[in-house]
Structure of EF-hand domain-containing protein:
Amino acid sequence: MRIRLYSVILAALVAITLMFAGIAIAGEGADESFRSMDVNGDQMLDPNEFAQGYEGTSDAQAEFDAADEDMSGTMDATEWAKYQKAHGMEGQGGSGMKSE
């Protein structure tokens, strides 16, 4: 019984560690375009920050809303990476957004 309890506790600790490691990696993986658009440095893009850098042909707010998967009103580095991938902007060294 004791070994089973220790196994459950160990599994929970490993899961929590991996979760926090994933968050840290996502923050480190934020590319330069994300960091340059994140004017207030909170590691999230709000609709205004996104719109300032957006140079697409469709409505910036509609694009932001579509990329904001969790509907939090902000876009994190993971959502940004998915947005870039969906729009063929990954690995190009640029953001596909306005440069300052």
